[in-house]
Each structure stands twice: as structure tokens, then as C-alpha cells.
Specification:
alpha/beta, 2 domains, two-stranded antiparallel sheet, 12 helices, 13% strand
């Protein structure tokens, strides 16, 4: 899996020391395998390691082992409290200083996947502005934490007349944006169901999420399509900016385009589409 991961053309590749490793196999051998993979290099522009949860016996050793290989990001699972972020920040700072690495050069992403974590998501998002980059929704563990009779990770909640995750996703998104972070949707574990994957991705993209975890190479292309910028969407955003600029030259506060009012708020929305196109390489 590590060899295959090195060549994947994803935006970020996460090497996992948590749920992907059986409890009896967690130890220095698997940590060194992950660190060695980082040192060899991966094609993905962003490399990350998911360590074990801060409140368990493995996290501090995970961080000490992989920090020297300088991943771009550490993913913290099951973040229940802002102190989890603070702990990781302090330990990483000491490891960076010891190894001569850039101060706070390793970023953090926090997974929100328990009821306690969701209850304190705003505090978690703001816990370390210098290092935090994203909040990540963890649907499997959160379903277990909430007592949902649900076993397909990331799939629709059976028996619920609507999107059973809407409240959770909305709260994570607002907390992330208020703290200036990215918001990332969690995985969809029904690997063969690419239609279901696309539907789940379209819902969170419509809310404003920046991306979604893939757990299989076959999911990368559909997710890139879902979270990219459609050419028609990009063209409309350009026309909005042109209409707004034309109205501004005449002193008008608003304009009309295809029967739609264009004002300052619309301009900001269009600029966010343009910026996303730049970030995703569509522009």
C-alpha cells in the first residue's frame, strides 16, 4: 500500500498509523515504514500522516517517529478537546527545534468524529491558528459515538428522511470558516458505489466543503471532478465580475445579468469561484 501510495495523483496522500494498523501491530516497525516512505518521497503535493489519538498510548511515539521525516501535515484523529491540538503543537514544536526543521512547518488537521469533539468544534478549530489547516469530518466513529444503527461509513443514514449528516456537516463547516480553516468531508467506504460517492460529494461541495477523503484509488478522479470548478460555473463567475465592474463604472450599486441581481455580495461569491479555480488548477 505504501508503494502504491507513492504514485497516486491525489491532492494529499495520508499515510495512516491509526485505524489501518491492527492494535497488535502498532509499534516502531510500522512507524519506520511510514517515515521511510516519506523520506523516499510521494507524488502528491501534500503528504500527511494520521497518528493515533492523543489520549492513547501511541500518539507521542508516532509523532516523535514521523516528525523527523518532515511530512507536510499531521492528522489528529478523535479530537475531543482543544487540549489535544495544544499537546500535538507543543510536542511538534520541540521535535522541529531539535531536528532543525522550520518552526511550525508541520501543519495539523483535526478529525471531528465524536460527540464530545463536535460539541467543542469551535474551540478545537481555534486552538492553534499557527499550525491548524483543516477540520475533517469522521463519519464512521461519529456514527458510533452518536449511537446510530449504521455501518456503512459515509453513506446516507438509513431510515432518516433527509440528510442525516446535515447538522454535523454544517457545524464543522461554520467552525472551520470562522477560524480560517479548510473543511474536508470524510470517506465513503462503499468502494464499488461510485454513484453514491458522487452524490455524497455533491452535497458537501454544495455546502462549501473543500474536498473529501478517498480510501481507494478509484475514488480520486470522481472526487477531483466533484470538488473542482465546472467550466460553465467559471464562465458565469467571470460574467458576474464583468457586469459588476460595468455597473460600478456608472456609479450603480447593482446590475442585472440573465435576470439575476448582481451586487457586492454576488461579486464576492464570484471571486471565490475564481479563487477556487486558481487553487484547483482550472485557471
Amino acid at each position: 500500500m505504501l508503494e502504491k501510495a507513492a504514485g497516486l495523483e491525489a491532492d494529499e496522500v495520508i499515510l495512516d498509523l491509526e485505524d489501518s494498523v491492527a492494535p497488535g501491530a502498532k509499534g516502531d516497525g510500522v512507524r519506520e515504514a511510514v517515515a521511510a516512505s516519506l523520506r523516499r518521497g510521494l507524488r502528491a503535493p501534500t503528504t500527511a500522516v494520521r497518528v493515533n489519538a492523543v489520549d492513547g498510548p501511541h500518539c507521542h511515539r508516532d509523532l516523535a517517529a514521523v516528525a523527523l521525516a518532515a511530512p507536510d501535515v499531521i492528522v489528529l484523529p478523535k479530537v475531543d478537546d482543544p487540549s489535544h491540538v495544544t499537546f500535538a503543537d507543543h510536542l511538534l514544536s520541540a521535535l522541529e527545534e531539535e531536528a532543525g526543521l522550520p518552526r511550525r512547518g508541520i501543519a495539523l488537521e483535526a478529525q471531528i468524529e465524536t460527540a464530545r469533539g463536535l460539541g467543542r468544534v469551535e474551540e478545537i478549530a481555534a486552538a492553534c491558528p499557527e499550525r491548524m489547516e483543516a477540520l475533517v469530518f469522521g463519519p464512521g466513529d461519529l456514527a458510533a459515538s452518536l449511537g446510530m444503527p449504521h455501518t456503512a461509513i459515509g453513506a446516507p443514514v438509513p431510515g432518516y428522511p433527509g440528510d442525516g449528516w446535515h447538522h454535523v456537516l454544517g457545524r464543522i463547516l461554520v467552525a472551520a470558516r470562522a477560524a480560517g480553516l479548510q473543511a474536508i468531508d470524510g470517506p465513503y467506504a462503499v468502494i464499488a458505489d461510485l454513484d453514491g460517492l458522487a452524490e455524497a460529494a455533491s452535497r458537501t461541495r454544495a455546502l462549501g466543503f473543500d474536498g473529501k477523503w478517498s480510501i481507494h484509488p478509484s475514488q480520486i478522479a470522481p472526487l477531483n471532478a466533484a470538488y473542482g470548478v465546472d467550466p460553465a460555473e467559471l464562465e458565469h463567475a467571470r460574467r458576474v465580475l464583468e457586469a459588476h465592474a460595468a455597473a460600478a463604472r456608472t456609479g450603480a450599486g447593482a446590475a442585472a445579468l440573465d435576470g439575476e441581481m448582481i451586487d457586492e455580495a454576488t461579486r464576492r461569491m464570484a471571486e471565490s469561484v475564481i479563487e477556487r479555480a486558481r487553487l484547483t488548477g482550472a485557471l
